[in-house]
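Anyone up for a design puzzle?
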């Protein structure tokens, strides 16, 4: 509401400045150059006021209204270990935008495709210091820190920008399902023993989910890259 009122005030002020400019043009003996500058300024301000504002990305999940405030769903507190044996928590992503996904290194189905597409995100955001990537293994018993380090090295990515994390299996599954709304379960009937989502989740600087994309589809990842740029402008 405050943003709307501010935009309306700008539009009205621009309108009255434009009217004043035309009135001066007709009724006063100002120098032509002065009249021209006034009209040019008024028209520019009116144009700025009329430009359609970029529509913000949606905010996913349940929201609660408490008094005059709206409280949105956010990613719950977590603590995992990455490929450098560093502890990774929510604080790692303070004032950062990040893209999250769930995978395992021995996956032979969608994971190779997902990692190819996530590499595109990594390359597209290399000049964006406020954008990181967080990949959770759903097979922590096999995906040790050493194995994740080797995996990251084979992808030739920097650990400060792309964290591959492991931890307690139940904690990983719980945060996948309840915080990221992503599928991550063990299923021995599946060829690789797990079922997991191919989703890439876009998280804003307040820990809110702002987008969900199919990480196996190039056009969806193109949309993700575009939305990252849009989110940085908010």
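Challenge accepted. My sequence:
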């Amino acid at each position: 509401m405050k943003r709307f009122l501010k935009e309306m005030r700008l539009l009205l002020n621009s309108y009255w400045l434009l009217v004043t400019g035309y009135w001066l043009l007709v009724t006063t003996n100002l120098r032509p150059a002065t009249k021209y500058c006034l009209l040019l300024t008024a028209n520019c301000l009116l144009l700025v006021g009329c430009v359609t504002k970029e529509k913000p990305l949606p905010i996913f999940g349940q929201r609660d209204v408490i008094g005059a405030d709206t409280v949105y769903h956010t990613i719950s507190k977590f603590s995992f270990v990455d490929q450098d044996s560093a502890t990774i928590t929510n604080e790692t992503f303070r004032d950062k935008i990040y893209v999250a996904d769930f995978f395992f290194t021995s996956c032979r189905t969608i994971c190779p495709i997902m990692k190819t597409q996530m590499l595109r995100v990594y390359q597209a955001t290399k000049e964006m210091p406020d954008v990181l990537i967080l990949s959770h293994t759903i097979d922590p018993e096999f995906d040790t820190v050493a194995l994740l380090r080797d995996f990251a090295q084979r992808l030739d990515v920097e650990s400060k920008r792309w964290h591959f994390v492991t931890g307690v299996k139940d904690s990983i599954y719980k945060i996948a399902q309840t915080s990221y709304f992503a599928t991550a379960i063990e299923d021995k009937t599946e060829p690789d023993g797990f079922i997991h989502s191919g989703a890439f989740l876009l998280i804003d600087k307040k820990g809110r989910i702002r987008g969900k994309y199919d990480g196996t589809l190039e056009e969806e990842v193109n949309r993700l890259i575009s939305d990252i740029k849009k989110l940085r402008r908010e």
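A detail worth pointing out: The radius of gyration is 25 Å.
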